[in-house]
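Deliverable D2.4 — example input (structure tokens):
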């Protein structure tokens, strides 16, 4: 299990710069004297369409699947803490 999660983590690290941001409401920031510069996720040219999974935001899909994997590990392999922190 640990090796499989390490492979998934490596794949996500490699493609993360070209994935669109998570969908949903944006977080509201508090007023602060520190200058804030919004972070842009996409590192690809604007002419290149972001990758999708059947039209679905891949980042949202991966988040839902990884949440399901974490829930599974917590319910069925509670002694396997390495898989959660690797």
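Example output (designed residues):
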């Amino acid at each position: 299990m640990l090796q499989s999660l390490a492979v998934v983590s490596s794949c996500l690290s490699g493609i993360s710069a070209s994935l669109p941001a998570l969908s949903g409401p944006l977080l509201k920031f508090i007023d602060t004297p520190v200058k804030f510069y919004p972070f842009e996720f996409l590192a690809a040219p604007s002419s290149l369409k972001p990758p999708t999974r059947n039209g679905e935001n891949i980042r949202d899909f991966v988040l839902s699947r990884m949440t399901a994997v974490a829930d599974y590990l917590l319910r069925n392999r509670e002694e396997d803490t390495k898989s959660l922190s690797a």
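Strands lie at 52-53, 56-57.
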